[in-house]
Amino acid sequence: MDVVIHLFVGLHIIGIASLLGGFLTQMKAMGSGTARFSPAMLHGALTMLVTGVALVGLNQADDNTVNNIKIGVKLALLIVILGLVYVKRDEETVDKGLFATVGGLTTANIFIAVLWT
User: Fold this and answer.
1) Cβ neighbours of residue 105 closer than 8 Å, sequence gap 6 or more
2) pTM
3) pLDDT per residue as tens digits for the range 40-85
4) I want to staple 35 with a disulfide (CB 3.0 to 4.6 A). Which of 29, 48, 61, 67 is the partner?
């Protein structure tokens, strides 16, 4: 079971890397007002959602303790991120504030995962 959990953790990290990497590559474009949500950002957010839900289920099945409040906060942030990226995915440019919000929420999600013990 540990191998499967570690496999999903790796996939979860790939998802966050895709979402944050898509944001970071558009930082210069955000300054000029031409930033847009890339498909990698949408796929990264979806990967995070699927693997995160799987990780909660696998950890509970393995009798590991799961902090449900932490998972709930992370899920809420991810749903907001996913909603924003999904709705605005086809637009040629995205408002600076909206784009920065996605980056900020993504960063907050990372720090919640790492620092909330």
Assistant:
1) 77, 80, 81
2) 0.93
3) 999 999 999 999 999 999 999 999 999 999 999 999 999 999 999 9
4) 29
